[in-house]
Amino acid sequence: MQRILIIEDEERLAEFLELELKYEGYSVEIAYDGRLGLDKAMNQEYDIILLDLMLPGLNGIEVCRRLRTAKDTPIIMLTAKDSVMDRVMGLDNGADDYLPKPFAIEELLARMRVIFKREERMSRNQNRSLTFKDMVLDLESRLLEKENETIELTNKEFELLSFFMKNINRVLTRDILLEQIWSYDAAVETNVIDVYVRHLRNKLNTDEKEAYIQTVRGVGYVMRE
C-alpha cells in the first residue's frame, strides 16, 4: 500500500484529502504544521508528500528545501497562491509538481499517478543497469557501454565489475572478492583478483590505469566517486 503524507494546516481540507485517498486505497497520515510534517517526512518513508505552502511553524518552501538535503521523496505542493514566482520557488526548492487551490480531487489523483509511473520507470531502469562515471553496465545483456562503445566481458569480468559498481567507495579486500566472485574455490589463488583487475583496466581502454579501479596497497581495490 502506497503511503501518502499530507502536510496541511486547513483541517477540513486535510481530512477531505485523507478520506478520498484512503478510498483510493492509499495509506494516509496528516501533519498540521510544518515542523511536525518535516519531522515525519525525515524519519519515515512515504511515496508522495502533499505539501501546503502556507504553514504554521515552518513554511512549505522551507520544509521542501530541508527535506531535499536528505531525501528524494516526491512532493506535490498545494497552495492558494498561484503566482509564477510561487510556482518557481516551489519547483526550484525541489517540489515535483504544483497544484493551486481549489483543485479537483481527480486532477490531484492524476498527477499522483504520473509521479508513481515515473518512479516505477526509474526503479526498473536502476534494476537493469549500474552506472559509474561514463560507464553503464547492463545487467541483462551483461554488456558494458563506455563513451558509446560496447565492451564485451567474460562472466568473471562481469561479476567482478558489477560487484565493484554495487559497492562504490567501499574498499574491497581480495578475500571479500574471492568469497563473492569465486566462493573461495580451493583452486583459485588470491592473485587471480589482480589478474582480472588488470584485464578490466585494459578493457576500459584508458591511459590512466586507476581512473576506474584504484589499488589500495596491502588491502585490495576500490571504485571511488
Q: Rg from C-alpha positions?
A: 24 Å
Structural shape: elongated
CATH homolog superfamily of the largest domain: Response regulator
Cα distance spanning the termini = 35 Å
Low-confidence stretches: none
Structural class: alpha/beta
* H-E string: EHEHEHEHEHEEEEHEHHEE
Beta fraction: 15-25%
Q: What is the residue-averaged pLDDT?
A: 88
Name of the level-1 CATH class of the largest domain? Alpha Beta
Q: Taking strands numbered 1, 2, ... along the chain, how are they ordered across the largest sheet?
A: 2-1-3-4-5
Count the domains. 2
Largest sheet: 5 strands, parallel
Our count of helices gives 8
Beta strand count: 12
Please give the CATH architecture of the largest domain. Answer: 3-Layer(aba) Sandwich
Helical residue percent?
40-55%
CATH topology of the largest domain: Rossmann fold
Short description:
By secondary structure, the protein is an alpha/beta fold. The chain has eight helices and twelve strands.
Describe the structure.
With 225 residues, the protein is an alpha/beta fold. The chain folds into two domains: 3-122, Response regulator (Rossmann fold, 3-Layer(aba) Sandwich), CATH 3.40.50.2300; 127-223, Winged helix-like DNA-binding domain superfamily/Winged helix DNA-binding domain (Arc Repressor Mutant, subunit A, Orthogonal Bundle), CATH 1.10.10. 44% of the residues lie in helices and 21% in strands. It has helices at residues 11-23, 34-43, 60-68, 84-92, 105-128, 155-165, 174-182, 192-204; strands spanning 3-7, 27-31, 48-52, 75-79, 97-100, 129-132, 135-138, 143-146, 149-152, 172-173, 214-216, 220-222. The protein has a five-stranded parallel beta sheet, sandwiched between helices. Helix 2 packs parallel to helix 3 (60-68) and helix 6 packs across helix 8. Residues 127-225 bind DNA. It is found in: Cytoplasm. Residues 3-116 form the Response regulatory domain.
